[in-house]
Amino acid sequence: MAPSTSFIALCGLFVHCTLTSAYTLTSSYDHTNWYTSFTWHNEPDPTKGTVEYISLAEAQSSGLTKIVNNQIYMSVDNTTVIDASSTSGRKSNWITSNKPFTHGLLIGDFAHIPGSTCGAWPSFWTINNNLGGEIDILESFSDNTQNFALATLHTQPEHNCTFQAPADTQIGTPNNDDYDCTLPASGCSVTGPVGSYGDPFNANKGGVYAMDWTSTYIRIYFFARANIPADITNGKPDPTKWGLPMANFDSKYGSCDVGASFPEQTIYFDTTFCGAEAGTSSGSWATWTDCAKTTGVSTCEAYVRQQPEKFDTAYWLINSVKVYQ
Question: Which residues, if any, are the signal sequence (predicted)?
């Protein structure tokens, strides 16, 4: 039955009013179907990281992925010393979901994510493989001293997307005033609260990241384990009851056709190292983090190749990933 005109009028007065029906689970990925639901990629890293992505068969045979206590474990090589003069990188996993989706609620429940480790660059993200439009739900680099995650959007130049949400509509803060989603590399980015990444995240037994995506907004939420809403735990998530998102990319706070700029998305996980921006002494290795100083190594690339034991905590331990629509 169509909503009444009086109800539609009232909706304009209330922030949390919605005409959409409750979210229903459409895809669930866990230890029972992970290896048939995701594809492993062993192509060169598009960010030019100091990494060698490997196939599922190699990842399983080398112990870089396995099922542990009904959780999905994905790690990086933490034993091999790579010759300093080599162009090779450290072995790792890069996976994509076999089933894309358009609009809905994506929820990742993580017991552990890669720790606060110099050189590591883990990401949980989505993208349209053909048309662009990238949503970085959870990513960070190295041992950023505040242990915060970044939520970032990247769009094609022709979409001219910008977002500048008021401070009272999100928990996070703009990263270096990056409001323009078309900016190369940086995009439009919001930093999460302290402890949303790395060692503090893991010390709190992990948590949940969620992306609520419609044709008019993309909202990223973070909940530490102790603060996960009961409706998520019960399998009936309702973002209207969650309070402020970590990042609020809403078209009413910028100039962006969200529907056109972010078409059908595929889910990605990866852990790379360094990357084009971070691998030199003039990049993020020396400026955004204190890694050059604390490690005594002038470049990220040299550190990653020569210090395998430093990556003992660079692993994902995933309870589940779910899509609701």
Answer: 1-22
Whether pLDDT at 14 is above 70: no
Query: Could you report the per-residue pLDDT of 238-292, keeping only the tens digit for each?
Result: 999 999 999 999 999 999 999 999 999 999 999 999 987 655 555 678 776 788 8
Catalytic residues: 134, 139
Q: Where are the domains of the chain?
A: 19-324
Burial class (CB in 10 A: 0-12, 13-18, 19+), 323: buried
Report d(CA 316, CA 112) in Å as an integer.
Answer: 5
pTM check: above 0.70 = yes
- Contact in structure between 120 and 59 (CB atoms under 8 Å): no
Tokens of 67: 């099922």
DSSP 158-207: GG--EE---GGG-SSEESTT--BTTSTTT-EEEE--TTSSHHHHHHTT-E
CATH 2.60.120.200 for domain 19-324: yes
Cα(302)–Cα(83) distance, rounded to whole angstroms? 9
CA separation for the pair 15, 48 (Å, rounded): 43
Q: What is the pLDDT of residues 55-78, one digit of tens each?
A: 999 999 999 999 999 999 999 999
- For residues 198 and 313, what is the distance between their CA atoms, to the nearest angstrom? 9
Where in 113-161 does DSSP place strands (E)?
A: 120-127, 134-139, 150-154
